Amino acid sequence: MLIRAILNQQTYSRLKNFLVQKRIFYKSQLSEVITGRALSWTSFCQSNGLRTTVAPAAWFMLLQATFPGQPIFSETSPFRSNPTPLPPTLPMDFDSSSLPSVHHSCAPLDVSITINYI
User: Fold this and answer.
1) Around 73, how many Cα atoms within 13 Å sit in the side-chain half-sphere?
2) What is the DSSP string of 62-105?
3) Alpha carbon of residue 28 to chain centroid
4) I need a labelling partner for 99 at 20 to 30 A (CA). Which of 2, 25, 39, 111 fits?
């Protein structure tokens, strides 16, 4: 979702320079892929090739506006040394026995033959 669509006019006006400078366009740029929780400033900088500095006030204002009601500080991140366990309802709960069986006419690909044609 576009950040512009999430923020009210006043907040967007206050954060516009920061958003442009850091090239932040989508909420997904601010969140952990699996959990959907807000990234820490350090994680955001690392994933965007930015020099890590002290988190600016604009970062916290942006997270509070885009993740209302969610904790936004790094101690809630699952990447800390003692993370909070993830809930069992996440997509990681996968039962491979629920997959259909392989059709009898399917055969594994012989990679050695394929490599000879490359």
Assistant:
1) 1
2) HHHHHSTTS--SGGG-TTSSSPPPPPTTSTT---GGGSPPPPTT
3) 6
4) 111
